[in-house]
Design brief:
It is found in: Mitochondrion. The chain has seven helices and 15 strands. The chain has 285 residues and is α/β, with parallel strands linked by helices. The chain has one domain: Ribonuclease Z/Hydroxyacylglutathione hydrolase-like (Metallo-beta-lactamase, Chain A), CATH 3.60.15.10. Helix 3 links the parallel strand 4 and strand 5. The longest helix has 24 residues. The structure holds ligand L3IBWBLD.
């Protein structure tokens, strides 16, 4: 990357905003949540960092088997403080996750939630009880309480690495996908933490309060399938033993989201209806 002046770096940052979400009318600018002082300093440090401060991602995928939920640990271990974030911590596995954070010498700064269902957010409260310095993060439109309420287009920094917030409603109103930053100093390939919006070869159910299959289809196509094909996708759940997929793979093989929207909705309706009808029958037997 050629050496750029500071104002050019800011422009570069703004040109990397995610595609605007089809249901949002706002065209706001991109605020930065930075661990280290003001926004310009974070951006400059990322571009001119020394070898000792070069971002280096530590990544762990953690599983809670009762609810088949994934929690993700990410840290910038190239930074002296080794700042870390947990995505979708589960209450039952908080002790395991915090022990791991401690063993790896990380400084947990954020507990992020992709949405406001009980299988996810309850872990954050427990973490804050045990580590009061950790800040909880959730999307503003989820109408939940948190230390930081983020919106589509925001960047969440941990050291010199960051996660971009993309609104992906449909499973719930306030669902977001967190995507690793776009840039030569950020992880390649990119990684997206899709919550319950996109599951491997599936998607989150849309029959709970605030669910909308139309919105979910639009969210996945505009905010997830628009990412580079080699982007690694990490869902909040898997019920079949899968751990990771890619954008390219899901565009080709996801049975719920690869057809045109109307046939996908019909498929989703029949899948959910007959799936739960079969479950009810098996309980009755
Ligand atoms: N299909 C699951 C049932 C658990 C479930 O409903 N999971 C949710 C996410 S937690 S709210 C979901 O959206 N599942 C997707 C689906 O297709 O049902 C199971 O097999 O146990």
């Amino acid at each position: 990357m050629p050496q750029l002046r500071f104002h050019q770096l800011l422009l570069l940052r703004n040109s990397r905003r995610p595609p605007s979400f089809p249901f949002s009318s706002s065209t706001k600018t991109t605020p930065i949540l930075s661990l280290f002082g003001s926004t310009p300093r974070s951006v400059t440090m990322a571009a001119y960092s020394t070898v000792a401060e070069a971002p280096r991602l530590l990544f762990r995928q953690l599983f809670e088997k009762e609810s088949s939920t994934y929690t993700y640990l990410l840290a910038d271990v190239g930074h002296p403080d080794k700042p870390a974030v947990l995505v979708d911590p589960v209450d039952k596995t908080v002790d395991r996750d915090l022990t791991l954070v401690k063993e790896l010498g990380l400084k947990l700064i954020y507990a992020l939630n992709t949405h406001v269902h009980a299988d996810h957010v309850t872990g954050t409260g427990r973490i804050k009880g045990k580590m009061p310095g950790v800040k909880s993060v959730i999307c503003k439109s989820s109408i939940a309480k948190a230390d930081l309420l983020v919106e589509h287009g925001d960047n969440i920094y941990f050291g010199n690495l960051f996660l971009e917030v993309r609104a992906t409603p449909g499973h719930t109103v306030g669902c977001v996908t967190y995507v690793t930053g776009d840039g030569s100093d950020q992880p390649h390939p990119r990684m997206a933490f899709t919550g319950d919006a996109l599951l491997i070869r599936g998607c989150g159910r849309t029959d709970f309060q605030g669910g909308s299959s139309h919105q979910l289809y639009q969210s996945v196509h505009s905010q997830i399938f628009s990412l580079p094909k080699d982007t690694l996708l990490y869902p909040a759940h898997d019920y079949k033993g899968f751990t990771v997929t890619t954008v390219g793979e899901e565009i080709l093989h996801n049975p719920r989201l690869t057809k045109d929207e109307v046939s996908s909705e019909i498929f989703l309706f029949y899948f959910l209806f007959f799936g739960y009808w079969r479950k009810c029958c098996s309980f009755a037997l």
